[in-house]
Specification:
By secondary structure, the protein is an alpha/beta fold. Helices cover 29% and strands 14% of the residues.
């Protein structure tokens, strides 16, 4: 049995299973089996490395990856949603698709007219024109589940209070009733972090 040794990376959470597999005499770990670069993003191969380092709170690797990709994959950060939308409109060209993306746990973006409970039809979202309010063009936000296997040329990733940087790591929260509550379960924390990673490959522009 041949297995990619990259499964030991933290985001795969395959530790116990891999330990059991290692006990088998006919098991071999081989990096050649790892699909390091998505064929859909071969011109932005540093994006995944940047996102992983960012979520792992590894400052220098994140900076290195960002330096390599910023010319092809511009990223802007702002607390003003209207400015974010205008920045994307100013940079998009021709038939470029763009839209809002948010975590499925982003319950408190509603004051900004972003409600992740809105039912998104992927056919209308990714094929309809800008004038259609059901299209992707910066009106309704889609979650990490609703954008699976579908990509934007430009994405406005709206970040809520569910995942917060503390200065040394992340704190994890779920909105219940009328307040944010800490997430103690390790699996649920991992799911929340993965949700952010799922939104991130559509960041910026692939030229």
């Amino acid at each position: 049995m041949h297995i990619s040794s990259r499964l030991t990376d933290s985001e795969y959470a395959a530790g116990n299973a891999l330990d059991a597999v290692r006990q088998r005499h006919n098991t071999h770990f081989d990096d050649c089996l790892h699909l390091a670069i998505s064929m859909r993003s071969f011109r932005a191969e540093h994006v995944s490395a940047f996102v992983k380092a960012l979520l792992d709170c590894e400052k220098q690797p994140a900076l290195d990856a960002f330096t390599h990709m910023v010319d092809r994959y511009p990223i802007a950060i702002t607390r003003d949603l209207s400015r974010a939308k205008q920045w994307i409109r100013d940079h998009a060209r021709g038939t470029d698709r763009f839209g809002l993306v948010a975590s499925s746990k982003a319950q408190r973006l509603k004051p900004h007219a972003i409600d992740i409970r809105v039912d998104v039809n992927p056919v209308h979202r990714f094929l309809n024109e800008k004038e259609d309010t059901h299209s992707s063009y910066l009106e309704d936000a889609a979650t990490e589940f609703q954008v699976q296997s579908l990509e934007f040329d430009w994405a406005c990733v709206t970040w809520d209070g569910d995942l917060r940087f503390t200065g040394s790591g992340w704190s994890y929260h779920d909105f219940r009733g009328d307040r944010w509550c800490n997430i103690a379960n390790l699996d649920n924390r991992r799911y929340l972090c993965n949700a952010s990673a799922s939104c991130s490959p559509v960041l910026g522009k692939e030229w």
